[in-house]
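Write out the 3D structure for:
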Amino acid sequence: MTAAAPPPPGGTLDLPRLTATRYVQPLREGGTLPAVVDTHGGGLFVAKFRGAGQGAKALVAELVVGLLARAAGLPVPELALIELLPDFGRSEPDPEIQDLLRASEGVNVGLRYLDGAFNFDARAAGDMVSPALAARIVWLDAFTTNPDRTGRNANLLVWDHRLWLIDHGAALYAQHNWPGVDEARTRTPFPLIRDHVLLPLSGSLEEADAELAALFTDERIAAILRLVPDELWEDPALAADFPSAAAARERYGAYLTTRLREPRAFVAEAVEARERRLREPPRPLSSRR
């Protein structure tokens, strides 16, 4: 099955709900043990499990940032909600996997499995990224405070002669300390953008800003947050901060819309970081370990 292309910028988004039917194989590169799973009528997805790592908060970030990217027309594999039934994967011999699946019963998150994809390397495949595309990706990662797009760990795949964005669970790190996030903290720049793998390849960040900031209206952000199911908003990891799914959506929406208000410090920081990077000698890219 082919990966669904992202909709055009501003197009309609959906988030299908599929039932996992078969545990195919674990993916052990990361520390959270995602896996390839087969689904009823939907084909293969890479499942990110609620019982791993940062739990439901990582899944919320995965969905919100992935949907923002798809709303902007950026190449993110098809997203889906993956339901794990109580008996799913019970025949797996690895006790660590058994424990993870038990802790992840219910709703999880999946990205379409891109069979044969390989990791992006700017030295070998940088010419497939246009300056405009690179600038839009840099802008999105600065907006959503995503630290995981570096030379060592780009979280970019090459598949079907195209670049694809994956793994956004570390973004929106404000969600891990909501009591400390006032308006001033919300509007702060994102200094880690200086290490972004696509920063030296990016074109005008000001042009990307003008395009994408206009696209992400309050209504569009609210629509994206409505696609994230109540089961994730009401998970104990989030319930400690919010009395209801509606309250959680309201807080995340306020954070994102406030961050988009002019002047956008995260854009100015990215522009300055790009200028500094372009003045530096090329950095050696260390391999991912």
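Residues 128-150+174-276 form one domain.
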